[in-house]
Design goal:
Layout lengths: L4 H29 L12 E5 L2 E4 L2 E5 L1 E3 L9 H20 L3 E5 L15 E7 L2 E2 H7 L4 E3 L12
Parallel strand pairs: 3-6
Antiparallel strand pairs: 1-2, 2-3, 4-8, 5-6, 6-7
Length: about 160
């Protein structure tokens, strides 16, 4: 059996839809079974990497629309502290939301966009709100469209 490019794109779309359905179901199911404070993102197959990226069942996802301070490549202790706070905020958003949705960006040919590191690009919504708004309003991120210079958090 041979696979053509269309089959691969179809399989990739199916796999991502499956992941999102599982994520939504797991959050709803686990929220009904246990207090929110007892849940961890890892219980849902979700790992929060930092304030603007996730890993869902092994797939790296870069959340678009905002940029959070770095944890691993921080330029100063202040940026690292803000980065850890942004990560904690993103985890709490996931755990406290009843409805989460990732809208993956697509190329003109319909395939999924990826950044220069190979991460899928997606807008993240929690209970109907863009997470970029939540994170920037909490002053744990800045709006960012993927172009131009990023903020130097150490200058704050």
């Amino acid at each position: 059996m041979t696979l053509c490019a269309a089959d691969i794109r179809h399989s990739e779309r199916f796999a991502l839809r499956y992941l999102l359905v599982c994520l939504s179901f797991a959050i709803s199911f686990l929220s009904a079974c246990a207090p929110v404070s007892d849940l961890r993102p890892t219980d849902l197959g979700v790992r929060v990497i930092d304030g603007d990226s996730l890993k869902i069942n092994g797939e790296n996802i870069r959340l678009v629309g905002f940029n959070a301070p770095e944890i691993w490549l921080s330029r100063c202790e202040y940026e690292k502290e803000l980065g850890l706070a942004a990560k904690a905020k993103l985890q709490s958003i996931i755990l406290q939301s009843k409805d989460v949705r990732l809208d993956f960006e697509r190329k003109k040919d319909g395939s999924f966009k990826r950044d220069k590191y190979g991460r899928l690009l997606a807008v993240f919504y929690a209970d109907g709100r863009d997470v970029a708004d939540i994170m920037t309003n909490a002053r744990l991120a800045e709006y960012y469209d993927g172009t131009g210079r990023r903020r130097n958090w150490c200058d704050a």
